[in-house]
Amino acid sequence: MNVGAVRVDPVLDGRILSRLHGTKPFPEVGSPLWDDLAGMVHEDGMVESTVGAFLVRTADRVVLVDAGSGQAFPGGYWPPPMDVDDPADPFTVMMRANGVGDDDARRIASDFGRIKAEQGGLPASLDELGVAPEDVTDVVATHLHYDHIGWVSDGGRPFFPNATVRCAAADLDHFLAGPADDLFTSFLFRALPAAERLAPVLDHIETWAADGPIAPGIDVRLAPGHTPGSSVVVLSDGDQRALLLGDMVHCPLELQDEDFNLLVDHDQDMANRVREAYARELEGTDVLVSAAHFPGLRFGRLLPGEATRRWTFEAA
Known about the structure:
Elements: E1 2-3, E2 6-18, H1 32-36, E3 47-57, E4 62-65, H2 90-97, H3 102-113, E5 116-118, H4 122-128, E6 138-140, E7 153-154, E8 157-158, E9 164-168, H5 169-176, H6 180-189, H7 194-198, E10 205-208, E11 212-215, E12 218-222, E13 231-237, E14 240-244, H8 253-256, H9 268-282, E15 288-290, E16 300-303, E17 310-313
Parallel strand pairs: 4-6, 6-9, 9-10, 14-15
Antiparallel strand pairs: 1-2, 2-3, 2-5, 3-4, 7-8, 11-12, 12-13, 13-14, 16-17
């Protein structure tokens, strides 16, 4: 897809099929809102989330927005079965350390038992676009969760040897401190904690503390809530614009219905306010939007509606 002279392409790394819980149920199968999600919510209630990145090419820059989950783990993606009733089970220890009651822990264990995941496809996806790791000039992280920085390093070395890694200062400070939420996520997803993943590229990192340009045609906007430094990337040329929302939303429904969110944010109240502000800004405009887990990383538009807004994906 082109935004004026700026070229943007999805770079798929994998997918996660999981049970997600929101502030209200997902739309009924066959309803207009369910149709709007283009197969993201399956008939059995499982939600399919794409994992990957966006490749943005300008006249003199090759920019990767986010960096997928990283290499697949030998022996499988998920941890062994979790026994909530065994006080020595690592899952039980982690849950109780985070104040999670046994009933909620059982639900989480049950949900994780149904998850299917694939990862590791980002290098091949880049190759299909004619881009080698050494061609990438910048990696822009919308935030520092494991599924957005997975290919920043690999085997203790930078995977993109010539790239400057860019992120919000608030996120870098938060994740380098080894917060409990990052350790919790790393345990459940068998992923390296952010501090360990970022260690090989620390001398290649540049941060932002306010809205501003990364390069001509590429700007960042702070949109805190999902993480302390969660950010939006704005692509523009002339009067054309497109937005990459990172994990400000995980599915279009969070823009369509202000009463719906997936309860996966660091600061839930702030995240809700940020989402609502962007939904109102985008509603009824011709601005194309995508986010890090939308189906196939496709772009779409937010349309006005009567009870709720509508979403339409661009043709694949």
